Amino acid sequence: MSNFFNLENPFFTTLSKICDMIFLSIVYVIICIPIVTIGPATTALYYTTVKVIRRDRSYLFREFFKSFKLNFKKGALAGIILTIISAILAFDVMYAYELAKTDYNKGSLFMSMFIAIIFIITCITLYIFPVLSRFEIGLKQLFKTSFFMSIRHLPSTILMIVILLVTLLAIYLIQILAFILPSVCALLISFLMERIFKKYMPKSEDNDEDAVKDEWYLE
User: Fold this and answer.
1) Model confidence at 98, in pLDDT bands (50, 70, 90)?
2) 28-61: string of b/e by CB count within 10 Å (b at 16+)?
């Protein structure tokens, strides 16, 4: 019975992680409210989920705001660019839909083209913020790398898109889940994303006595 009240037992450890994920989701949603902060907030969400929730390193809010500040400029710019592209594509899809009513063949052709572009943008969006959280990289290269990874690991990409869509659908149907599911979605995606990232992470030499970098992401 005494083991049950031990804070290190699996029950309390799991409960602690669930609470951390709820707090993380709440902070994420609040930070996203200004819209322009969605990029760096999503970067921080992924970074914190992997480092704190999965790897038990450091403290939740410390790591979230550390990543948020560090990646604010590039994250915000990437988020704004993706938002503008998404808005244009939404307009294009509506145009194709209306066109199909009068010219079905032409409208269907445009609709197919726009859906293909939407798929590519979704792939890039899925990778861009996790990539930013892990790699020191310029904005242009960030987009190129995200596209390259998403296409090279297409089966994993498709599975991650399914996870994202299911999460968005659940939040659409039950709005309160917006304060719970963001970190759950990031956690599920991280199991696939981290396997991909490990293929691109250079390992330091074991005999390098000067290496002090905490390579928690290689665990």
Assistant:
1) very high
2) bbebbeeeebbbbbbbbbbbbbbbbbbeeeeebe
